[in-house]
Amino acid sequence: MDRFPKAADVDFHSPLDLSKAAAAVLDEEGRVSGWGPSAQRLLGHSAEDVLGQPAARLLAAKPEQRLSGLCKAHKPRSAVLELCRRDGGTVRAAVTFSPLAHHGVAATVVVAADLETQRAWEAQLAMLQGLATESPVGLTIFGTDLRVVWGNVSTDLELAGVAHYVGRPASDLFPEGEFVSRHHPPDEEQVMEHVLSTGEPILGMHYRGRAPVDPVREHVWSCSYHRLLDARGDPLGLFEESLDITERYRAQERLSLLVRAGKRIGASLDVRRTAAELADVAVPQLADEVLVDLPPAVIEGRQPPTGSAPGHSLLRMHGRTPEEFRTTPVSYPPSSPQATSLTTSRPVVDASPPETTVEAAAATWHSCLFVPLLTRDAVLGLATFRRSSNPDPFGAEEQALAVELAERAAVGIDNARRYTSQHEAALVLQRSLLPQRLPELSGVDVAYRYLPADSRVGVGGDWFDVIPLSGARVGLTVGDVVGHGVHAAATMGRLRATVRTLALLDLDPAELLTRLDDLVAQDSESSEDDGLSHDEALGVTCLYAIYDPVGGRCVWASAGHPPPIVADASGSVAWSALPPGPPLGLCGLPYENVELNLSGDSVVAFFTDGVVEDRRTDIDSGVDRLAQVLTWQRCPVEELCDRALATLPPGPQADDATLLLVRTRRLDEDDVADLELPPDPAMVAQARAHTERQLAAWDLSELSFTASLVVSELVTNGLRYASGPVTLRLIRDRCLLCEVSDKAHTAPHLRRARRDDEGGRGLFLVAQVSQRWGTRYTASGKTIWAELAVS
């Protein structure tokens, strides 16, 4: 289907052409001697009506003398006449009189056409002449051999004389030019052959090159190609129309560059990457190289320095990936254009800037643009745009573009700096909330590793703790707050402190998690009442365990946390049979205790999901990796921790990874002495005697008096207020532990006795002579304990 279906109606023949115009012949007396069909179509008169009649009868007016003068002229004359139609109307026509003289016969050929039609044709002719002589659109005609035939004035100006190129191929016009548009054949000769062979025009191709009239500056043209056909429809060649769109093309490039800058610059929240993003966006459209110089404080996430001389102590950043990143110190003299740009906070263009590094001096930069990186009235650094291959200096519009890019980069760098500062602060907060050092305990050998998430993710909410409990027991906990950031770290610190407080109340694991669940649910409700959104509180998991080295008994409970992995002394590894309860904050659902007897030299792995879960692998694969490491359980736990982290997939961590390895120990049977006492007050003396004998056997006779006093008071209270037998246990550990267990669930309270009171001073004395004392409840009653320091 033709692009222009009415193209056949366009006719560039003159209306006065003999093939179209109304024609007649007049004799020397002005009578009509010849009358053509075209004349009849124009005026309606038949030949019989007008032949032999005076031509003046056809004029609307009767200017006899004027008609006579036109007929007797010795050269062609033209006039505008009002002609009479047969129907009584008139036609305003353009008429040409051409004299004929042949063998003594005088005659005049008259050609006439409608005046409006003639004026329209003349306008078309003027348009063609304008395209050839005045139009800014370059028109070039090529023959069927694809060589130059003709060019209009615009083409003549661009080529500095089109006559020099007539008969030469198109490739000679712009030897180094190329098509920027890629949706057609890339070679101009192929484009022209396609148009010539198929007749399909190619429109709007962007062509870039250097015109002979301006060989230094690069131009861009919009080119279209059309085939030329003769009257028979055979190809005559083709013509090219070209329009210089350099400024419009560059404006579009600048706009697209700004759009790309908005998507890319500042998306990483990393100072180094943001600087690299500025260079990626600006090269090569705006500059051949972009350098970014920043103070060390900004790179490290601190406030930019104020009051120092501009250009001093800056670091030039190199590399577009963390592996390639490096810095080079640079310094600008006070009189340099760089220092001027930093001082005035304005861009400065310099055709020959002083170079500050050996690398820069080795290159040839004919134009440099220095733009300060400004944000919130602070100067963060300097961006340098340099050109080498592009010969054009930085114009006003390009300077404005560079300033816009620098402003975007400055905002991105400042945001990255603030993020780095906040991330470091959150990381310091998180680390300060975690145990700074683990206690030395006889019952366990402990090692841990904490691997924070990638800085782009933010600090997480993992925590762990090792808590010394009464009776040489150890509380072990690990937990995870869903989410990242300062709030997750703060929530983690609050929950860890709460777990430690509840653990020191000697609650069993299920009871501790139940109370912790209530507290988390209350925090969530208060956050909703305040209109705050703390989603992390609804995603808290926790595992708490108590290990007793006297019998190797371990009790634990889980609130949605992965169960521990246990490797016994033989190296056999198994998941614990721990049914995980619901995460904290759901409130109302029960938690269950699981009890397990651990042999000495067993290794228990407590961990968060960051250790076993990764975006590229499932959690089962991670658990298998960790279990495989634990088969080496005879290695020191510090070495096992390193082995476990070495199995993590390479690359940035998506979540915090916390690993707590515990090697269990059992106290020697000789270090524990139990004595069951019947409910008889006389048994107090027997308890004191038993204590003195046992301390003598342990070479702790220096504690006999103090220990006997403590045992006497605790046994007396047990026999007085409880029913049934009382059990006395002495444990030799890093301190001397005295425990008295009975069947009662009510504990005595420490108080200050009045002068006339007969009792009430026992626990006060116990508190004074012991370093710690307390009460813990069991399923069958309670245990009151006291610790005495061993010198």
Write a short abstract of this structure:
The chain has 791 residues and is an alpha+beta fold.
Low-confidence stretches: 354-362, 530-537
Shape: rod-shaped
The count of helical stretches stands at 20
Number of strands: 32
Q: What about the largest sheet? A: 6 strands, antiparallel
User: How far apart are the termini?
Assistant: 108 Å
What class, by secondary structure content? Answer: alpha+beta
How much of the residues is beta strand, in percent?
25-35%
Query: What Rg, in angstroms, do the CA atoms define?
Result: 51 Å
Mean pLDDT: 83
Overall helicity:
25-40%
Record the strand order, biggest sheet: 7-6-11-10-9-8
What report would you give on this structure?
- With 791 residues, the chain is α+β, with helices and mostly antiparallel strands.
- Helix content is 31%, strand content 29%.
- It has a six-stranded antiparallel beta sheet, sandwiched between helices. A six-stranded antiparallel beta sheet has the order 14-13-12-17-16-15, with helices on both faces.
- A hairpin with a 2-residue loop joins strand 16 and strand 17.
- The radius of gyration is 51 Å and the shape is rod-shaped.
